[in-house]
Amino acid sequence: MPETNCAIVWFRHDLRLSDNPAFAHAAAEHDQVLAVYCLDEDTAGAWRPGGASRWWLHHSLADLAATLSGKGVPLVLRRGPATRVIPELAETAGATAVYWNRRYYAWGIEADKAIKQALGDAGIVAESFNGTLLREPWETRTGSGDPYKVFTPFWRAYQAAGAPPEPRRRPARVTGLADPPASDRLDDWNLLPTRPDWAGGLRQTWSPGEETARRRLHAFVDSRLHAYARDRNRPDLDATSGLSPHLHFGEIGPRQVWHAVLAHEQANDGRTKGSETFLKELVWREFSHNLLFHFPGIFEVPIDRRFADFPWREDDEALAAWQGGRTGYPIVDAGMRQLWETGWMHNRVRMVVASFLIKHLLLPWQRGEAWFWDTLVDADHGNNAASWQWVAGCGADAAPYFRIFNPMTQGEKFDPDGAYVRKWVPELKELPTKWIHAPWTATPQTLEDAGVRLGETYPHPIVDHMAARARALDAFEQIKRDPSGGR
Ligand code: FAD
Hints:
Blueprint: E1 6-11, H1 21-29, E2 32-39, H2 41-44, H3 51-70, E3 75-79, H4 82-93, E4 95-101, H5 106-121, E5 125-129, H6 151-160, H7 200-205, H8 210-223, H9 228-231, H10 244-248, H11 254-267, H12 273-294, H13 316-323, H14 330-342, H15 347-360, H16 365-375, H17 381-392, H18 407-414, H19 419-424, H20 433-436, H21 444-449, H22 465-481
Parallel strand pairs: 1-2, 1-4, 2-3, 4-5
Helix pairs in contact: 4-5, 6-12, 8-11, 12-17, 14-15, 15-17, 16-17
The protein binds flavin-adenine dinucleotide (FAD).
């Protein structure tokens, strides 16, 4: 084996070169660097990337490979269980060290531990870094040393801890391994849909990659941050950052986002309601990852164990209507169609559609979580599971179960002109605003004038709001009566 001082950087949820501690460490300490990405669907099981994530991953890897190649560093792609692939590659490449940025879900942590052990046994250094969070989950604890279960004190603890470390610059100099092991061809992984190619809306909406993420961040901070607190709940406006898939794939890191906001504050009016609210959302992301780390069963098991006995229904027809945006509730249908078309949905509408599935339809939250996992480009281990549990009322610091969103009033409040519904549910386009969120309340003449035939061009509501609400509250009473409740 040649005598080299070669390090492998194993990329995972950190597909970028700036502010990437594992990559920076390898570039600084080693003569030669080899970049590796391992598509490990075996270890992830049901939580392997869904359809929309696979689309994103393909383009993000292509972008990363191009950027690395510009620096002379090869990116080797391999498919299979990482516990086999990584130690094998380290040996073939003659690497003296393998570096990675940490992940926080149970099967990832378990695999990483096994790999660290195997590399150590082979005399290869294995070292991990934080490239994904502002702070590590074990750094933020309550006075009694427990993880936080309530967001507000968690946020206060983050504020008290001060700004997170500054992001690192992209290494100026790095030398790639001259004779890299063979790589799979990205195209052979078939991450892109072909028959049918349903990704047209994704292509129109998104451009994965580190440079686009950086530009999106700065465009947001320069032009929309100041109005974020006022407009962030309005799905009809382009008021949020759209950074979620970039953050999930690590094309940009949260410390880069945090410090871009601080720099903007320093150059402008200091802390504003807009910047404070935005930083708080970034801390919600941290909170979700803390829950993910401390409650590893969060994907499937309700944190509030009373909900294990909740009398959920099974109803494939209702589930299909929800998935397809055919519930007869315009704000719900608009959200589900936005999701299908673009791989993304506005946060306010995510809450409304999730509440509708869980409470109006009484379907298990895990069904919605799985659908989001498959269709969201930002499908994220921490944010998705924690948010579904939050809406279901069974998570840590959850919204109480009896808070049931009314889809009509949510629509009126947050889509006041009906522009969002008109965009995604065009069959209601001509309906006057007064009825856009409850078409069944319009007079027959109004419907006719707008070209809406309920039951034909647009469905009748699949459940009656008041009856569904009463049914949900009844179901909740059943678990409240459970004498083992909450333990
Ligand atoms: P902005 O408003 O610009 O916020 C900036 C960043 O803060 C986001 O990119 C995100 O990383 C973080 N953030 C914002 N809101 C939240 C939140 N409520 N919880 C945690 N982090 C947040 N977000 C995901 O990234 N992936 C998911 O799989 C996901 N699933 C969700 C499922 C449900 C049922 C709900 C109600 C919310 C879910 N969210 C998820 C949270 C939130 O809806 C998205 O992060 C947000 O809409 C992304 O848009 P943005 O980047 O424009 O957000």
